[in-house]
Amino acid sequence: MLLSIVIMTMDHRWHYLDTVRSGMSLVVYPLQVMVDLSTAPLRSAAENLSSRATLLKQVEELRTRQTLLDAQLQRLVTLESENRRLRKLLHSSRETVERTQVAEIIAVDLDPFSRQIVINKGTNDNVFLGQPLLDANGVMGQIIHAGPFSSTALLITDPSHATPVQINRNGVRAIAMGTGASNRLELPFIPNNTDIKTGDVLVTSGLGGRFPPGHPVATITRIQSEPSRPYAWVE
Q: Is residue 29 part of a domain?
């Protein structure tokens, strides 16, 4: 212990060990180079792994962003199509309003199996057979008999009446049949895989030329499907 202290003191004052240090550095340097060379591949591999992980993360983020952008694009395409359809419906509705006249109900058929009404307009008011009848909620029926001063209309809820309709959300077409009930229609022959759901609004499709397109007809309130049956029960 004492010898070490003496050597350290002498080296501090007269630098006796500088030569020894220089010699040791010559011996140690090659070892340091070898160690550095041996660990360089490990460092490079670690850096490559880190870079690969970063790239994979960036690729995943880009894929997620692309998926979101694709979904937004599809939504925009759907909205654009719906906008075009609504513009056509609006144009048709404006034309219909220009040809509309107001009438009052003066009689209601009391037959429980028939849905007919009588209005106070006739041929003298340019009423004609097949003329559509509208109310504040949409399509109501059509004229089946026109006299000079009054006319009889068959309501869309009459069991014998069929109204060409389409789902306003996606344009899927169907036929709405009257049931005899004052507030219920049925859509027969709707395949189970049809894109239809509760709350969908049905509007006139314009097929047949009897009703102008785009007027509200009904709202879907019930859908019942069974695997054993090819068609769903839709009201």
A: no
